[in-house]
Amino acid sequence: MLTVKDIMTKEVISVSPDTEITRAAKILLEKRINGMPVVDDQNRLVGIICQSDLIAQQKRFPVPNLFTFLDGYISLTSIKHLEHEIQKFAAITVAQAMSPKPVTVHPDTTIEEVASLMVDKYYHTLPVIEDGKLVGIVGKEDILRTLMAGS
Length: 151
Hints:
The chain is of the alpha+beta class. Strand 6 and strand 7 form a beta hairpin. Helices cover 37% and strands 23% of the residues. The strands form 3 sheets. Strands 1-2-5 form a 3-stranded antiparallel beta sheet. The protein has 7 helices and 7 strands, in the order ααββαββααβαββα. It starts with a helix and ends with a helix.
């Protein structure tokens, strides 16, 4: 049975939290990748930055929906969510735009489990973590290659 360690990319393109957004966008475009891990100086995963995180900067700023009830205003969006959207909208560094605490997989995770995560949760890229350190990355293309190898 194939596992992540059999198909993962071991030479991972990553950025640090203080990388400028424009630099991260350039790397994603030049390398033709959807996302990349964000690691600290000890190679510990702190987040993931994807094309969708960068595209979020281009959308219109969401104004919270309010409604009144007994002469009071009640917000339909949470303050935490609104703060996160404002931060992404105005991001200058990767730390401000990244998705913190991304879903990760272990080298021994089966390909079937990874495929299920990607399909069910719409993930394109999953960091591979072992002993708290980033050791690889697995993407949809890696899964597709396993199908090609079987034919």
